[in-house]
Task: inverse folding
């Protein structure tokens, strides 16, 4: 079981659940109906796990040289079995994604949006793992996966509540989802050479992209529909809160920039990924009752406990 949990990068799965839950809370100010939320987190977890499995399948030759201790190159799990498992998880994740909208949607809603987004997310996952990972476009594809994951959570919102844009998502929803995506583009770029000595220029660019994502997240209330209600000042206190949330993470990245050894870079990447839960909880605190923010933040408990036992990068 531990070998498969290592293959799944199980500590990171809770960051995907946090993203999709934040998306639902953003548009519904809660997680009801429960059936839609459960289908949503199941689809998100399945698709994320499939991406981790297929990542190792397509990286098999590289891992034989750089990470021979991992489950596939060490022979603990057969490559063919992992390939089948990855595509099964991908297919089940897409099918579950189609259930989300129909589990929550009255006739006036775009119930098909969740299925379209789940299929787009699956395609983006496969393209990253099989084609784009080693290219300059690879980090953009990874950021696209995170953006689509947040939009999956937002897909059961009412498209008639605000001026619509792409797929009937209002501008503020697209900006929040895009902000998480840009932040993950930066994390992915930062981690490109985590197994070897990283170049400082690569790390600096990754950090810069993370900051861009944070700025986007701080500014999303400016695009909200008139009458939107928040628990704190969205123009002054919220931007400060976003930067405060990420101060520790950026400090860890700066330490890796100063001494770009694999151990420091991997520790920084791990903290960047786990910080997604803080960002998601912060958004929930701004737009919904504080209990939802606490619930999202509680996902840190299994994330941190499992990370002591199973690697996450």
Result:
């Amino acid at each position: 079981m531990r070998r498969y949990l290592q293959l799944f990068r199980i500590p990171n799965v809770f960051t995907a659940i946090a993203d999709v839950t934040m998306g639902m809370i953003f548009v519904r100010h809660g997680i009801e109906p429960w059936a839609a939320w459960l289908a949503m987190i199941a689809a998100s977890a399945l698709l994320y796990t499939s991406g981790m499995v297929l990542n190792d399948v397509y990286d098999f030759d590289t891992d034989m040289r750089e990470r021979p201790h991992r489950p596939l190159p060490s022979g603990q799990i057969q490559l063919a079995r992992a390939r089948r498992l990855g595509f099964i998880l991908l297919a089940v994740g897409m099918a579950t994604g189609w259930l989300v909208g129909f589990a929550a949607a009255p006739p006036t809603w775009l119930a098909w949006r969740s299925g379209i987004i789940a299929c787009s997310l699956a395609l983006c996952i496969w393209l990253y793992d099989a084609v784009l990972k080693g290219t300059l476009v690879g980090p953009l594809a990874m950021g696209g996966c995170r953006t689509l994951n947040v939009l999956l959570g937002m897909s059961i919102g009412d498209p008639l509540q605000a001026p619509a844009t792409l797929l009937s998502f209002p501008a503020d929803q697209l900006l929040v989802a895009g902000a998480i995506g840009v932040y993950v583009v930066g994390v992915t770029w930062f981690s490109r050479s985590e197994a070897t000595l990283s170049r400082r220029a690569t790390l600096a660019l990754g950090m810069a992209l993370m900051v861009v994502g944070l700025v986007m997240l701080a500014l999303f209330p400016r695009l909200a529909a008139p009458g939107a209600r928040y628990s704190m000042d969205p123009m002054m206190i919220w931007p400060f809160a976003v930067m405060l949330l990420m101060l520790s993470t950026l400090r860890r990245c700066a330490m890796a920039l100063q001494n770009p050894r694999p151990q420091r870079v991997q520790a920084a990447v791990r903290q960047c990924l786990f910080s997604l839960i803080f960002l998601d909880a912060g958004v929930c605190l701004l737009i919904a009752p504080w209990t939802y923010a606490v619930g999202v933040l509680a996902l840190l408990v299994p994330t941190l406990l499992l990370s002591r036992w199973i690697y996450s990068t």
Q: What stands out?
A: The mean pLDDT is 90. Residues 79-104 form the longest helix (26 residues). DSSP finds 14 helices and no strands in the chain. The CA atoms of residues 183 and 211 lie 7 Å apart.
